[in-house]
Amino acid sequence: MEKKNSTLHAILLCILLCFIWYFWSGKTGLETKGERLILYFGLGSVAITLWVSKRLQMIDEEGQPTNPRLIMYIPWLIKEIIVANIDVLGRILSGKKDAVQPTWIRVPAQQKTRLGKVIFANSYMTSKKFKKCRKNERPSR
Questions:
Q1: By three-state DSSP, how is residue 11 classified?
Q2: Cβ of 131: how many Cβ atoms within 10 Å?
Q3: How many other C-beta atoms can be found within 10 angstroms of the C-beta atom of residue 53?
């Protein structure tokens, strides 16, 4: 069972790396020798990345999650980051000394994996709940 799961993650990682490389490279044609060479370099870099990831045993559920809910989560997170940045920019440009008050708070996390905890922490920091917290208040759930 572990082998199938690892193979699925490797295939999804390969597709993701090819997709990212294709859009970042900006190369869509194969007419010239140079464009074909760039394509071969891209495929080689994907193959090397997959090989190194496999050797380091980094291809698993935690390193490369396959949860379909991530597709809906990423646009939400991007929107929250933009809203939080606009809010902070507005507070800074307001000129008030106490407009931005950095504080430390402890938030209970129910995630089991390190990746889950990191995603939760980064998401929580950009959400509206975090912006409403004051120095000695506990955040609402």
A1: helix
A2: 13
A3: 19
pTM of the model: 0.47
Which amino acid is residue 38, in one-letter code? I
Structural domain that includes position 93: 70-132
Instruction: Compute the residue count for the chain.
Output: 141
Residue 137 inside a domain? The answer is no
Report CA torsion sign: 141, 104, 95, 80.
Answer: negative
Under DSSP, the state recorded for 21 is: H
pLDDT tens per residue across span 81-110: 888 888 888 888 988 888 777 777 777 778
Q: Tally the domains of the chain.
A: 2
Smallest Cα–Cα separation from 9: which of 55, 64, 69, 70?
64
Same domain, 33 and 78: no
The span from the CA of 58 to the CA of 50, in Å, is 9
CA-angle at 16, arms to 15 and 18, nearest 5°: 65
Q: In angstroms, rounded to a whole number, what is the distance separating the alpha carbons of residues 71 and 136?
A: 35
User: Is position 29 within any domain?
Assistant: yes
Specify the 3-state DSSP secondary structure of 38. Answer: helix
Q: Are residues 80 and 47 in the same domain?
A: no
